[in-house]
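We modelled the chain as a single entity of 897 amino acids. Its sequence is:
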Amino acid sequence: MKFKFILPGIFILGTCLSFAYKLAEDPFNDLLKRLQDYNKQYAQEKVHLHLDKPYYAIGDDIWFKAYVINTQTSAPSNISKALYVELINEKDSIKSQLKLPMDGGITWGDFKLPDTLTEGNYRIRAYTQWMRNAGPEFFFDKTIKIGNSWANRVFTNTQYTYSKENTAEKVSASIKFTDKKGLPYANSDVSYEIQLNFRNLAKGKATTDNQGEISISYLNTQPALYKSGKILATITLPGKQKITKSIPIKATSNAVDVQFFPEGGNLIESLPNKVALKAVNAAGLGEEVSGAIVDNDGTEVNHFESLHLGMGSFVVNPQPGKTYTAKVKFKDGSEQIFNLPKALPSGYVLTVNNSNPEKIAVKILMTADLVGTNELKLVAQNSGNVYFVTRTPTQKQIITASIPKKELPSGIVQFTLFNGANNPVCERLAFVNNIEDRINATLQNLKPTYAKREKVELNLLGKFSDKPLQGSFSVAVTNTASVKPDPENETNILSSLLLTSDLIGYIEDPNYYFLNSDEKTAQALDNLMLTQGWRRILWKNIIANTPPIIRYQPEKSLAISGVITSYGGKPIPNSKVSLFSSSGGFFAIDTLTDAQGRFNFDKLIFTDSTKFIVQARTAKNKKDVDIKLDILPGQIVTKNKNTGDIEVNVNEALQGYLQKSNSYFDELTKRGVLERSIMLNEVNIVEKKNPAPNSSNLNGSGRADFVFTAKMLENCATLSQCLQGRVAGLIFEMGVPYLTRSGGRAPMQIILDGMNVEADFLDNIVPSDVESVEVLKSIGNTAIYGSRGGGGVLIITTKRGGGFTGSTFTPGIITYSPRGYHLIREFYSPKYDAATPDNRPDLRSTVYWNPHVVTDVNGKATFNYFNTDEAGTYRVVIEGIDMMGHLARAVYTYEVK
């Protein structure tokens, strides 16, 4: 990507311009200046995740590397220092969230997929806090299939058929239930529930036939409202075990929606207009169509046919007084009539011809009434950076221009035509794919053929413009015999950062547009530009000088901040605020509030599950204060936009991969590397209730010399009052607990929700907020706490138990468990040249993963790994970026025999 070649000057179109302007006094120049300032002040971020595989199985790790860039410079971003990556299930619920430290726009991590997860269509979503201001439409959000064979007893295969009953849509589903070996579960009871858009639509019961199948049907009486959902089918297995399967409903009909998009925005009478079409089925995938354009007299004026994924284009010249319809023919032979947008009697047409590999040809057409009326301006910009500006008087009805592509950056270029009042009247997108903008990532020493378990030693050479560069790269190696690539639908650093990150909505097969550079691919990509909406830069905000709403500031470091107030909400300046933590060793730090009562503990470093205590006192050491922490609300999970990527039968789609991964997981289980959850048949067990279920007691919750429950603490003002005289040997002096057996008169150690606090904290805790107090006084119970337990231990667990987030349980003290950094793990790659031979089977599906390959000043980096025991074609995928924002993507293959 090119970021430094922004054209500040003004280009002249042929002989149209022969005069100069005082730029400092020109309103349009002021508008461009506002765009430049807006883009610099509110620079946005894009994120791409390089995944080691396109799909996974339960038991796998999802390894990824994140590349985050600043859209204003196209270089790796220094705006944010933390990235959030989430694994989201089919219920649009977050199953796991990682917060990763980021340096220079680079970070990496992984998700472990335990066997407690079910198969399904999961999503991986990534964003920074700063990106939340632009909205989730611009997050990295990818749907991935995760299969389950290793820890699965029931497999389903579902087929849908559709029909109409009056105005309702009828859906019939045939569901087959089998075991891992493909044997049917015959004569088994099944209960099912049908949900559309999370609304319960129908329920019922059925029994599988000898082939393990059931047939069900339902009516969707509100097809405009309910378009997708799921079937929850619960089958009862031999032994009375019940297993529920969630089966996606991608659509409730075979309906195809066809939309028409005039180039530039509107159809204009008496001018030739290019019109794009997009046909999408109910499942969100493109449908190939053909047809004819007919006027209101029944005269056929043109034919059309979709070129790729239901997209195509045609030309129409609307005449005054005429209306136009499209007779669309679908692949099943049926036809439907759609109205074209109504043509305007006056206006402009902006036409862009992007077929020439060297330049972009622009043509401006206007109706006769607009000739000679005002001056037009044409602006070409990418991510808010202006690369081309021209002005022209309207002396002719047709104006042409030509822009060399080498002067434009790779990615989406937005052309906007402004009228004399500096209002945008036409817009058009064009995609520029400058190969010169790419890093040339070359693998040296790669042989065409290797043996099993042979060591592969490779040199990576990175160059730009034939000069070596320093860059950060990630490398993934898989065996295509196990992991079959899907090249057209593959998400990569080019399709993410240059294409989909700037388009709203679902993009089908995004990498298709990068695989070839032929005329058909270029035309398909141009049709995508004509039919897909774009909203990253809104001119109306620039014109109105309206700043964006900033709710989330860039996250520069881990911090705990807030405000200290009186009970009436008045800020208290010069208050002493202390931060304590015993996670990973005792930690304490103090600060004072400012004039507005605010405090900030900045530049902290801590991991997930770290617990803190925040204590505040006034300047006069009074504790009757409220502590209000700055707690950022979590990002909501929006509905999955990638409807076309949803797979109804995930396990069947991944059958080959699951069969191979089964053997791998079984081998890891034998070695004790992978743990399997043990599923027991339902047994009714009656046990004594644990009086301290959420306790952090190192002996085990409830294992104490005496346990006070919440009910025993109901009728006293302080905890010392509650405990006084009720446990032999426990006494209190000035609210501090002691044991009479303690020869050194050391106070008891108090542990609050797993954290060590001082003994005089006890009466700051409100008894009604306590779930349990465990008293440890015997040597058997205190020994595990070492010297800290010498005077005895009180383990206090609050009702919001064991580290609730941000809740106040007593004046002047709160506990807080903020989201800390996730610990980054290293991919395990065996070494077979060791002295001790390893004869255990090596069946890794990801042969090698390295997220941190850094080239030196000579553009070189080395890495090595060993092949597995499986033959096949091994695929090496390299992605990367340099400090200038140039991108790298390379794919190599070799054979293992």
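As a brief sanity check on the tokenised model: The chain has nine helices and 53 strands. The first helix runs from residue 27 to 41.
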